[in-house]
Amino acid sequence: MSVQRWRVDQNGAATHSSDGHWVAHTDHQSYLAEREQRIAELEAALTKINALRNDIVGRQAIGFSRHVYPLVTILNEAGFAGMSYEEARAALATEGEKRE
Asked: Taking the complete model, does pTM exceed 0.70, yes or no?
């Protein structure tokens, strides 16, 4: 699932983009319905993330099985795909080089 960005021009015409290419949305009602659906999806994701945070704070500990893996799943389902393991390791190495 990709993240869609929306914009409405001065005439009320809606367009959306998930990959940098803007697509006209001819039916304003469907635009509003899709926007409301996306808001609901993001609110559901934030509710799950908040529950993870509360569990981490309450335990004063973080675990991969209990916290990190579920967090990755929640973000992926909400359309925020992260880096692969290899990409993340390479980015970490690059950050270390910047500090030196």
From this structure: no
